[in-house]
Design a protein that fits this description.
Blueprint lengths: L1 H17 L3 H25 L3 H7 L4 H29 L1 H20 L4 H13 L3 H12 L5 H26 L2 H14 L5 H5 L4 H21 L5 H15 L8 H4 L2 H4 L11 H14 L3 H30 L3 H29 L2 H20 L4 H27 L7 H29 L3 H23 L4 H7 L1
Helix pairs in contact: 1-12, 2-7, 2-8, 2-11, 3-4, 4-5, 4-6, 4-20, 5-6, 5-7, 5-11, 7-8, 7-20, 8-17, 8-19, 16-19, 16-20, 16-21, 17-19, 18-19, 18-21, 20-21
Length: 479
């Protein structure tokens, strides 16, 4: 009887943890949201200043583009590794490591005195960029399947807020008045140090503030973010129960610590190796789902968005005479749509419509919006086209991340989301080069060609909607 009583409690506790109370789930989602928002504000501060900083070191346009590409390339390599590691050691340690790494990367940006140092800062930032995929995995841990798309929408809303507030902060921090005030303040506090000269530059002060934002994000992870990884939560519950029962071990208690959790991490090869793709194909066959088509679709959607950032400012200036500040207003408009849709409308939309249907609509709107940019003859036409594009992207991003998360078993969510972020990073790496090349040929062709490529994403979404097999992991469990 004692053994029976002892063996039931861990399983009961584990079941209770998997069905977390709404209040606990909301606290967890709120903590994740704030961590991502604060960290992305730092990212948004640095990003618009990067091309101008590169010009300080006489970088060519191609080299300037490589600064953007190397960040996404490193994310492509490291995001799956961080995701897999988070399945093993937990979400909190990985988010702590990635946010602290961002602090170091932004400080290196602020102190850069050569192009090599600037490249090193972007390489480090990409290597340590595991917080988004880990945050997505934590959301998947904390939400039931029918609420997961709404949870993933919080990440999109965080992106919107970060990319709205970050560039605005960069503009303010790089303004002459703020730089003069910061230099005077640093001179009063540390007149014989390097600070007065550093904060008087339009890149040093923003870099320091970006590092401060990531430091705040790191502290918030340590203080407010609970562990959500299923294997780690179960292990903590068993350990607590062992203490409560004075460490009495039974045969049944060993079942909670599965050999799979205690074994070394499953080795997933590089995304560039054939074995990587064979493993993905095998997993898709086992579950009968859409993992590979969804991952490729995620790549293409990120590719389309990234191509916009390279070609859109050039077209807006050449065709409509928009100044940089006018282009900034359009980006603010795009960000606000993301915040409104992903932060407020996704939850009621997913309650009324299937995720597969919203995913399809989002892809259709994005294709139409991209093509419409090419034929924009006025600022109003351009604004409407960008609105369609932003609405489509705001719908399809949380839908596709939710659909991808449902292709994985509970102990593989972090690994799969890390792989997905790697695919997204590859799209972001290739998109700007694609957009720039086509813009140099015929300006409007950059948007038309990209919209034609994204037509395939409509086909994938239509196929998933028709079959209704978005939750491959559930199908695999039921077989």
């Amino acid at each position: 009887m004692a053994k029976s009583s002892r063996s039931k409690k861990p399983s009961e506790s584990s079941q209770a943890s998997s069905e977390a109370s709404p209040k606990a789930s909301k606290r967890t989602l709120g903590a994740i949201f704030l961590v991502v928002v604060i960290d992305l504000m730092g990212f948004g501060i640095v990003l618009p200043l990067l091309p101008f900083f590169a010009q300080e070191f006489a970088a060519s346009p191609w080299v300037t583009g490589a600064l953007f590409s190397v960040f996404s390339f490193m994310q492509l390599i490291f995001s799956p590794l961080w995701g897999r590691l988070s399945d093993r050691v937990g979400r909190r340690p990985i988010m702590m490591m990635s946010t602290f790494g961002a602090v170091l990367a932004y400080l290196l940006f602020a102190f850069s005195t050569s192009l090599a140092m600037l490249f090193a800062s972007r390489i480090l930032a990409g290597m340590m960029g595991g917080n988004i995929s880990t945050a997505q995995a934590a959301i998947s841990d904390s939400t039931p399947a029918d609420q997961r798309a709404a949870g993933m929408g919080l990440i999109g809303a965080a992106f919107g807020i970060g990319f709205v507030l970050g560039p605005a902060m960069a503009s303010g921090l790089a303004s002459p008045g703020v730089l003069e005030w910061a230099s005077q303040l640093a001179t009063q506090w540390a007149p014989d140090s390097f600070l007065p000269a550093l904060v008087s530059t339009p890149f040093g002060l923003p870099g320091i503030v970006a590092a401060l934002m990531s430091a705040i994000s790191f502290v918030w992870v340590v203080w407010a973010l609970p562990e959500t990884a299923p294997s780690k939560v179960a292990a903590m519950e068993v350990a607590a129960h062992d203490v409560a029962t004075e460490g009495v071990a039974t045969e049944d208690s060993s079942k909670t610590h599965s050999p799979e959790n205690d074994s070394p991490m499953r080795a997933r090869p590089s995304v560039f190796s054939p074995r990587f793709w064979r493993q993905l194909v095998d997993q898709q066959r086992q579950t009968g789902g859409f993992l590979i088509p969804l991952l490729i679709t995620y790549l293409l959607l990120s590719f389309g968005e990234a191509s916009l950032y390279a070609a859109f400012p050039l077209l807006a200036e050449a065709k409509l005479g928009l100044a940089p500040q006018d282009v900034g207003i359009q980006f603010f408009y795009i960000g606000m749509i993301a915040v409104i849709v992903q932060g407020g409308l996704i939850r009621p939309l997913t309650k009324r419509f299937r995720e597969e249907s919203l995913f399809l609509v989002g892809n259709i709107l994005m294709v139409i919006g991209l093509a419409a940019i090419a034929w924009s003859a006025t600022i109003l036409h351009l604004t409407l086209a960008l609105g369609l594009l932003a609405l489509g992207k705001s719908l399809n991003t949380p839908m596709i991340t939710s659909l991808i998360s449902k292709q994985a078993r509970a102990d593989q969510v972090g690994e799969i989301m890390g792989t997905a972020q790697g695919f997204s990073g590859l799209g972001r790496m290739l998109g700007p080069t694609w957009g720039g090349l086509f813009y140099g040929w015929i300006p409007e062709s950059a948007f038309v060609a990209t919209s034609l490529v994204l037509l395939s994403t409509i086909g994938v979404a239509w196929g998933i909607r028709q079959t209704g097999q978005s939750t491959a992991s559930e199908l695999g469990q039921s077989q």
